[in-house]
Write a structure and sequence with these properties.
5 helices; about 0% strand
Length: about 80
């Protein structure tokens, strides 16, 4: 049995690799004319499907309940406006 690069990588490395794959897919979809909002909604739907499948509905709901504070705190903001 052959070991893959992902199996050898740390959790953080796997997250970086996954992000790279998603960014490539996102860029390709945008080039094909898919709206960013549609991509975002489909990505969130797919992510929550995976979370529910892996952790169950209650754990996923608990995780999602904390997202509003994380969003307000700028965790998902790349550039902050200068004051």
């Amino acid at each position: 049995m052959q070991t893959t690069a992902a199996e050898l990588a740390s959790d953080n490395d796997q997250k970086r690799m996954a992000l790279g794959y998603l960014q490539e897919a996102w860029a390709e979809a945008r080039l094909d004319g898919i709206d960013g909002d549609c991509l975002a909604q489909a990505s969130l739907f797919t992510a929550f499907l995976e979370f529910v499948s892996t952790y169950g509905e209650d754990a996923t709901a608990h995780f999602a309940s904390g997202l509003s504070d994380r969003i307000r705190n700028g965790e998902f903001t790349l550039e902050r406006p200068r004051q």
